[in-house]
Amino acid sequence: MRCPFCNSEDTKVIDSRPADEQNAIRRRRECENCGKRFTTYERLETFPVMIIKKDDTREPYDRLKAEKGIILACHKRPVSAEAIAGILDEVESRIFNTGEKEVPASMIGEIIMEKLQALDSVAYVRFASVYRDFKDVDTFAKEITKLLQKK
What we know:
The protein is an alpha+beta fold. The protein has helices at residues 63-73, 81-97, 105-119, 121-131, 137-150; strands spanning 11-19, 24-31, 37-43, 50-52, 58-60, 102-104.
């Protein structure tokens, strides 16, 4: 593993422990060249899952793309990075556990909305507005009304 500070390949593992509900290993490393410490995560490599989009095109699942959408929805909201990582871990767990090589994008969107709704209602409405492509204020109002009725 290269040091992110000095790019040296001489690093050593100081500590290892389970992370992300036993789905990864967190390794604390130290560079033998510059002495700085950093953390890496090791995850099980799974078979690539293709996402079937609304227009029937396919693209490989990209955790960073899902993460970007969630981060945008949670902008200036009291949602921790750990909570966002938890949502992403849940998405991956569910889609990989289907055993399918192709899953619809709608499955990912619905899981994210379900988790955001339980976590932060504003982030949920923000995500839903993009995901469901709200066209006008009435659509927003209907979604907010549904949200308020559930409380």
